[in-house]
Amino acid sequence: MATTLKQAKQQLRQLIQQRLLQYGQEQLQTESQQVISQLVQQPAYQKAQHISIYINMEKGELQTNMLIKDAWMNGKTVYVPRCTGKNDMQMVRLEGQEDLDSLPRNKWGIPEPAADRAHVDPLLLDFIVMPGVAFDSKGNRCGHGRGYYDRYLAKATNAFTCAVCLSEQVIKHVPADEHDQKPNIIIAPLGILYES
């Protein structure tokens, strides 16, 4: 059973990643803006003070730079993920735009805080913006397959979790098991896909 689920998710990742490579920069920006303008209206976001926001890959992923700027403008503290060798993820505070611009890139080409920077207690976070590969209207999410967010969310129990996606990432059914953490809300360009 586990292998079939694993294979189904792997096939799904390949399919969605091919679709996402077709995105032009303009479509990526437009859909990202549509999602972020809905996200900033969420009461949980407006109340939140300590927000974790992922830094997007250059291609095929919802762009989060506008959201990071919005959070800073509204006096929120922003944290970004750092993946460690132990298959673990930590959140590190971003000090501002200059800090963001100078982050070294990890093996996936994503800017990430250096290993010597202090990370925060997951319980400090009150809002987490998470990526994924595919999503459905029942709240199921297929990630990149490393389980970073599923493990982290199990520790960050005070946080409201919000998954964001592009329209090509919305599908009818995402294969999932009991280890897969459902976000509190999933926001797609055309509206809220799921809310618990």
3D architecture notes:
- With 196 residues, this protein is α/β, with parallel strands linked by helices.
- It has a single domain (2-195), classed as 3-Layer(aba) Sandwich (Rossmann fold).
- Helix content is 32%, strand content 20%.
- It has six helices and nine strands.
- It has helices at residues 2-21, 25-39, 43-47, 65-73, 97-101, 148-155, and strands at residues 50-53, 77-84, 88-93, 127-130, 134-135, 141-142, 160-164, 185-188, 191-195.
- It has a seven-stranded mixed beta sheet, sandwiched between helices. Strands 5-6 form a two-stranded antiparallel ribbon.
- The chain starts with a helix and ends with a strand.
Tag the structure with descriptive keywords.
20% strand; 6 helices; alpha/beta; Rossmann fold; two-stranded antiparallel ribbon; 196 residues
Short description:
The protein is α/β, with parallel strands linked by helices and 196 residues long. 32% of the residues lie in helices and 20% in strands.
Return the string of H and E elements. HHHEHEEHEEEHEEE
Average residue-wise pLDDT = 94
**The CATH fourth-level homologous superfamily:** NagB/RpiA/CoA transferase-like
Say what the CATH topology is.
Answer: Rossmann fold
Order of strands, widest sheet: 3-2-1-4-7-8-9
Quickly name the level 1 CATH class: Alpha Beta
The helical percent reads 25-40%
- Main sheet properties: 7 strands, mixed
